[in-house]
Amino acid sequence: MVNEVSMYRGNDRTVEITVLDKATGLPYNLTNCTVTMLVKHDINDADANAIITKSTTVATEGVITNATAGVTEFYLVPNDTLNADTLNDNVPYPIDFRVETPHPEKLYTVLRTWLTILTR
Asked: What is the biggest distance separating any 2 CA atoms in the chain, rounded to whole angstroms?
């Protein structure tokens, strides 16, 4: 499970999460699901206004690495953090991780944590 994510501006960072079933505490089977990571200025911002959006539907952004174990990786690349006007140093920004299930189609926020860009 991921704790707060911190990284230096312009670096690469892989963020791994394990999605657990809230009722059982066991890994949630992500087969045929889509997982999305959204970094926002404010928790209440609309998804469309996210600063950074990564999805497992784009292999260079994120991958479900072990569906039956609920494990997903997301890839933050230098361009995601280079704009100092968008992300300020040493400010925690909320990250939502969402799972969209195929049948029935449902959307769940499975984890909320924070991204901080560190000062060099």
From this structure: 46
